Structures are given as C-alpha cells and as structure tokens.
C-alpha cells in the first residue's frame, strides 16, 4: 500500500523514540467462551441474555474467539509491527464466585496470552477491570455495595501476584464514568440499573476501588508503571448564551472531571454538580485520605466532541447533548459520532493542565465505519483518514510541550461493541463473525507501515 504525499508528512519518528504505540482490546469484547474452563458468569453475560438489551439480539458467546485464537491475533499484532498490546483480565475467569476460590485454569489462560506476547516481542499492557463484574457480586449490590472495594482488592491482588513478574504496565480500570453512568444511572449497559440512588454510591465506591487497586499494584509490582483510563470528550456550548455556557460547564464536570479530580486529590466537582452533595452520605471517615493516588500515567480515551445546550427537562444537570446529525456535521461514524480531530488535542491540553498528572497515554482512539469486503480486501479510507488526522492532533499537542507519551488504537479486531452488538466495526482487522476469518483492513496496513518506518 503506497503512502500519499500527505501521509509522508506524518511520520512515526516525529514523536521520538520513547513514544509508546499500541492497540487496545477488552476481554468481554473479544474472548468469547463464557463457560470455558471454570469461568463464572459476569454481569455482561447476564445482560446480553436479556431480551431487547443488545442490538440485533447479538451475544458475545463467541465474539472474536480470542480465547482460542489468541496466538493468531498476537501474530497479526506482530505482523503489523505494533509493539504494545492492551488487553483486560476477566474477573470471573479468575474468581468464578467473585472472591474466594481461584480458578487456576483462568490464571493459566492469561499466562499463556502474556507469555505468547513476550515470545513475539509484544509488550503486554493489562487493564485489571474493563466492565465485566462477576454476576454473583452484582447480586450483592455490585458497585453500590461498599464491600466491592475489598472484593476488587482481592481481584487486583490476584492479578498482581499472578502476572506482575512479566506485566510492567497496568491500568486499574477502564472509563469509570461510562460503566457507572450507562450501567447504574441510565440502565443501558450491564447490570441495567438506573437512577441517581444507584449512580451516586457507585461513583464513590469506584473511586475508592481505583485507588485501592493502584496501591495494591504499587506494593506488589513496585517497578511497574501504573495508570488508569478515563473517557473524555471536548465539550462546547451550542451558543454563547450564558445558560448554554453554564450547561456546558456542568456537562464537562460530569463527563470529564467526575472521576479524575478526586483521584488527583481535588475532591468531587460539587460546585458544578450540586447533586454530588448527596455523595457525602457514603463518605466514611478516612475516605478522603484514600481517594487519591500518584499515578505514573493517566490514560485518556477520546473519540469525538459534544455540543451542549441548556435543558430544563434534563434532571440534575439541566444540560442536553445536541445530536451530531442534528448539527449537520461534515462526517459521522457508524456510532453517529462527529469526526472532529481537534477534540483529542483539546483533551490532551485539558488533562496536561493538571499538575498532578505526570504522563498522558491515549489508551483508546478509533472509529467505526461500515466496512465491506471486496475481492478479499477491506478498503476503509474514512478510518485511515480518521486515524491520521487524530494522530496529527496528538503530535500537535506533543510539539506544544504536552506530556503525551503514547497512543493506542481502538481496536485490533471488529468486536462485540456492548449494547451495539456487532454493528459498529472499529477494528484494524475485519472479522467475519460467522467464520472468524480475519482480513487486515487498509487502515491496519497503514498503521503497520507507519510503525515500521525507519
């Protein structure tokens, strides 16, 4: 595949030799085999079985069959010259009952994955928790039950002791505002709970669990780099009217600040989100001292921007997103998200402004488009252009002195995209889910060539 003149302006060497490049995945979205080798049920196993929860009644019992095909997929990572592979550990594969008895077969599986990565010269980056809480713990209240801090600590301890001798880069949790908001407030993700009475305690218990997990990793794997990842979107007001501007400030506090600020020792953004005053009900003596941690890096995950206007009818924040299609934007992804490369630049700048953050890694960025196989090839110029333009914005931020030190594409293979099922294809590699055939897309070939330069 030839690089165009514009492509040659974007060169991997411009980022310097210490910049980290990779690709990201998550256990539930790729592994399949939900019953294999003693694995317990997760909240997503339960949720996907409920009628009407997943687009086209899709399920993840096979997904990308990574459980059985991990060698093939790691070979593809190596073939594409991708040096770092981010994946997550299934809690219920290691601890089928959430706590207590360890499933050695689960440990053995991830040992095989990690060892094969190392054999192929691919560095494993491990996310401890990527949304798949054991169902048995959800039945005890899940993230609304304060005991979850200890449950998660047990899981993090097992991960550190089992894999810490080889895994040197850890992320404690993935996108807490998404799994608490979608899962415990809106009810559109597992476990399907809704309402502020579920959301508020879940927020506080997740914050305490992130820092508790980080402290466990620091103690047990002292030489490791420890981070956690946070979704973020550039937020802009629909107009310059004061009430739209104020609504955008509230939306920004909810989407971009709710978890990172307490973890940095700044407390919750109560001034902008007065509903957070109710969180005090769940704050026990000593909590404020245990809510923050000195992370080696922070992962940020950006895809788009959001335009916000005032809304009397939206409870708690009085702010409403203006849908991208209603704004008649130039380009939409299959997720109906606006393609807006400057958003990643603005979010790097925003997180860089926190003096407590030592290093920023873009741990997810990518796009879904309706890919088609034609004569054994998948030509995906929209995704290729998306990646190039977003990566250019990362370079712009880096050149301006921002401490951004890595970039991971979401994602390796077309996978199970939660409530959207298999409709959105984010992968660098096309997967025919009826046969599990893999085809490297043109965007994947470009990324591989980009990473192999020089």
* Biggest sheet layout: 8 strands, parallel, barrel
What is the rounded distance between the termini?
Answer: 17 Å
Task: Give the SSE order as H and E letters.
Answer: HEHHHEHHEHHEHHEEHHEEEHEEEHEEEH
CATH topology: TIM Barrel
pLDDT average, as an integer?
Answer: 97
Write a structural description:
About 35% of the residues lie in helices and about 15% in strands. It is an alpha/beta fold and about 450 residues long. It has one domain: TIM Barrel. The strands form four sheets. The chain has an eight-stranded parallel beta barrel, surrounded by six helices. A three-stranded mixed sheet has the order 6-8-9. A hairpin with a 4-residue loop joins strand 14 and strand 15 (about 435-440). Helix 4 (about 65-80) runs parallel beside helix 6 and helix 8 (about 150-165) packs parallel to helix 10 (about 195-220). About 50% of the residues are buried. This is Beta-glucosidase. Belongs to the glycosyl hydrolase 1 family. It comes from Mucilaginibacter lappiensis. GO terms for molecular function: beta-glucosidase activity.
Outline:
By secondary structure, the chain is of the alpha/beta class.
């Amino acid at each position: 595949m030839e690089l165009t003149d514009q492509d040659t302006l974007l060169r991997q060497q411009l980022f310097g030799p210490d910049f980290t490049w990779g690709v990201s995945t998550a256990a539930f979205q790729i592994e399949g085999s939900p019953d294999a080798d003693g694995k317990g049920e997760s909240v997503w196993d339960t949720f996907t079985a409920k009628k009407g929860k997943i687009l086209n009644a899709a399920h993840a019992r096979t997904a990308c069959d990574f459980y059985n095909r991990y060698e093939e997929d790691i070979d593809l990572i190596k073939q594409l010259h991708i040096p770092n592979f981010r994946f997550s550990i299934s809690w219920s594969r290691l601890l089928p009952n959430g706590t207590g008895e360890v499933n050695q077969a689960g440990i053995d599986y991830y040992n095989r994955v990690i060892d094969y990565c190392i054999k192929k010269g691919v560095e494993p980056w491990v996310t401890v928790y990527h949304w798949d809480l054991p169902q048995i713990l959800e039945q005890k209240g899940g993230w609304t039950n304060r005991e979850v801090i200890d449950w998660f600590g047990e899981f993090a301890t097992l991960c550190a002791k089992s894999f810490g001798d080889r895994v040197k880069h850890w992320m404690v949790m993935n996108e807490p505002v998404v799994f608490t908001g979608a899962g415990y407030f809106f009810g559109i993700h597992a476990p399907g709970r809704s309402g502020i009475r579920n959301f508020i305690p879940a927020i506080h218990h997740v914050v305490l669990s992130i820092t508790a997990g980080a402290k466990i990793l620091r103690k047990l794997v002292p030489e490791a780099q420890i981070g956690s990842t946070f979704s973020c979107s550039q937020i802009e007001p629909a107009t310059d009217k004061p009430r739209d501007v104020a609504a955008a400030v509230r939306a920004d506090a909810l989407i971009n600040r709710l978890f990172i600020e307490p973890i940095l020792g700044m407390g919750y953004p109560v001034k902008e989100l007065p509903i957070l005053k109710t969180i005090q009900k769940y704050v026990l003596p000593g909590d404020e001292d245990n809510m923050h941690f000195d992370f080696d890096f922070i992962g940020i995950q950006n895809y788009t921007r959001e335009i916000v206007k005032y809304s009397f009818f939206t409870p708690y924040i009085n702010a409403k997103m203006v849908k991208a299609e209603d704004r008649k934007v130039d380009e939409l992804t299959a997720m109906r998200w606006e393609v807006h490369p400057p958003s990643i630049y603005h979010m790097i700048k925003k997180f860089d402004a926190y003096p407590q953050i030592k290093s920023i890694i873009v741990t997810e960025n990518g796009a879904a488009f309706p890919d088609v196989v034609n004569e054994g090839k998948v030509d995906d110029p929209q995704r290729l252009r998306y990646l190039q333009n977003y990566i250019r914005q990362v370079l712009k931020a880096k050149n301006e002195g921002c401490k951004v030190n890595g970039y991971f594409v979401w994602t390796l293979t077309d996978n199970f995209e939660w409530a959207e099922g298999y409709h959105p294809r984010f992968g660098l590699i096309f997967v025919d889910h009826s046969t599990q055939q893999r085809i490297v897309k043109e965007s994947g070939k470009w990324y591989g060539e980009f990473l192999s330069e020089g």
